[in-house]
Amino acid sequence: MPEIVLHHYETSPFAEMVRVALGLKGLRWRSVIIPNMMPKPDLVELTGGYARTPVLQIDAEIYCDTAAILDALERHQPQPSFYPAPLGDLHRMVAGWTGAGQFGAHVGAAMRNIPADVLGPGFAEDRKRRFVGFDFNKMPLVAPHLETQVTVAADWLESVLKDGRAFIGGDTPGHGDLGLYMNLWFLVVMPFAKPFADGIFARPALMAWFERVRAIGHGEAVPTSAQDAIDIAKACAPADISGPVEAGQSVGQVVRIQTENSGDDPVEGTLLSCSSQGIVIRRDSAKAGPLNIHFPRVGQIVIAA
Ligand SMILES: N[C@@H](CCC(=O)N[C@@H](CS)C(=O)NCC(=O)O)C(=O)O
Predict the structure, then answer these.
(1) Which domains occur in the chain, in start order?
(2) Which in 33, 180, 278, 290 has the greatest CB count within 10 A?
């Protein structure tokens, strides 16, 4: 049986999306807790530089970004699908929206009153350096605007759900539900915005839907050390993948993958495939051996090295 390992930390909304995705598939998985800011030496040993949260590992395959992670889980276990009809791939579009400006808006609304000592030393600087345009010091100024963005999303969700459907696409949940859920979940777990969160959750259809998604749970998590995760990767050979690639690219060329709007290092490796289905590169880790590193195509810049 392939080993599924999630590298994450408790308070990450994107990690919560994947934990619920693992629950939806009813999977048993290994849980490696990573630091919530740099440095992350054990994680970067596997990814080659990508340091966002979460990262999924299946044996010697490393999946960066929730879009690649959900695709990997969908291939690993197709049912129940994250992309049920009638929305299908529209779920990806909804999740893409929740993971972009809406993510920042919910984080800002949830953390606007967080005391500096709770944030911890170095955290604000880490986020400023690694998230282009993000600055905790500007939060008091921008938070009122961010709250309006959260309110619009909540109004739209309430309007979609008020015909009585269980999930945004009907009877079964999908990727879009999980994206909407992760942002609202962050408002709930951060205790610093309670009056605002209470106002958002005063929408009855949204509240009932939120509880339905929460009830999916996280599957079965088995605590695992970072060293064990590295050992799992080392014991496995990465899959043979060869193409397709985009015009002007060739399999085997050295490339760097840079995440848009990120201050983290690009990941260098040899190109195995690159298409709308995603990007795969091969790299050698000193401790884990050869690895395939997977990215979604959306949001990643491929640079010929
Ligand atoms: N597009 C990425 C975004 C991931 C992301 O920004 N995660 C946040 C945590 S929720 C993060 O990486 N924060 C910095 C860190 O954990 O070091 C995805 O879908 O996975």
Answers:
(1) 90-213 (1.20.1050.10)
(2) 180
